[in-house]
Here is the input.
Amino acid sequence: MKLPDVDIDLRPGTDILDHFPTAIRASRVEKDTLKKHQVGVYLQNIPVDNISGLSAIPYKQAADCGYFKFDFLNLSMLEKFESKQEIRELVKHDPDWRLLEDGDMVKQLSQIHRHFDIVNQIKPTSVQELADTISLIRPAKRYLMRAYIANKELIREEIYKVPDDPKKYYYKRPHALAYALTIVLQLHYLKFNMIE
Here is the structure.
């Protein structure tokens, strides 16, 4: 059984090996050469290439072998807040959803910055609807957009099902919700800076 990756957001500049010195950086193959995966590491004992110090098994094959990759992503938005508590408080409150009606505003938001046309058609007014919007942008689920606009509740489950062609890009619900919450933080931050 292929195991999923786990994404963990960190402040930029965080080197995960400072916190997990025995972690092994994931690898990928580029032009028949083992290269460092941009953000992936293994916290388990995986074979190591003696020359590069990277995982000897490229990440795509490692997943098939049962190795579990963690992607530690640098999220610049985290630098804008003082503490975890501040973030926790902000995500409890709805942002001003009307900000998503402004194309220039949407251009500043992660995940949806190039998709104002879709955001404007769906007009999300909740974290779940924003997650759905993020998922509908992906190629494997874009065909569901009209049906979703007609009946969000009916189509929602279909958005998060594994596509018939597993090579097609789509988001699982937890990923989409996490990205939606990041956008909520961005909206709060942008609105606060507009008022100041």
In short: The chain has two domains: 6-74, 77-195. The two ends are 52 Å apart (CA to CA). The chain has a mean pLDDT of 89. Residues 173-195 form the longest helix (23 residues).
